[in-house]
Design goal:
The protein is an alpha/beta fold and about 160 residues long. Helix content is about 35%, strand content about 20%. It has helices at about 25-30, 40-50, 55-65, 95-100, 115-120, 125, 145-160; strands at about 1-5, 15-20, 70-75, 75-80, 90-95, 105-110, 130-135. The protein is globular, with a radius of gyration of 14 Å. The mean pLDDT is about 95.
Length: about 160
């Protein structure tokens, strides 16, 4: 059983929560979100926030907070083979109410279908906020180019 090694990023000004599933092997090693060089999350978010691409965890955290986002994952602990979401089992969800109760969250987005299904199964009923599913920024989601991800994410985040 693996335990999530990264604390959530949020503050009292956060309005939009983005949830992934569980950190990849590289993210667990780095103890920070979306650490795999091929994951497009930080590139997409930098474009949405009209910022330069952040280079380190401090710059990434600052970009998230300065733009009133919050960032965490659905899963607190689980069994997983490598980084493959398809192998996740024995899920214990994170307590998202910690963020909800200490921020100004109005919208929740999930990064990919697995995050969506786990959010619906374990969290949505207790939180009472429906999550909007965005296509995964994972390199495994090769069907979506970085530009297409940006266009879709930006449209959904700005319109919702």
């Amino acid at each position: 059983m693996l335990i999530h090694p990264v604390k959530p990023i949020y503050d009292n000004k956060s309005e939009i929560l983005i949830l992934g599933t569980f950190p990849s092997v590289k993210s667990r090693e780095e103890k920070f979100f979306y650490a795999h060089a091929q994951n497009r999350f930080w590139k997409v978010m930098a474009k949405i926030c009209c910022c330069d691409l952040p280079k380190n965890a401090d710059e990434k955290t600052r970009m998230i907070l300065d733009n009133h986002f919050a960032l965490w994952d659905v899963i607190h602990s689980c069994e997983v083979t490598g980084s493959a979401d398809s192998t996740i089992k024995n899920v214990v969800p994170n307590d998202i109410s910690i963020i909800i109760n200490h921020s100004n969250i109005k919208k929740i987005f999930v990064n990919g279908k697995k995050a969506e299904s786990l959010y619906k199964k374990y969290i949505e009923k207790d939180i009472g906020i429906e999550a909007i599913c965005l296509p995964s920024t994972s390199p495994a989601n090769a069907r979506w180019s970085e530009e297409n991800l940006y266009q879709y994410w930006n449209e959904k985040i700005k319109q919702e």
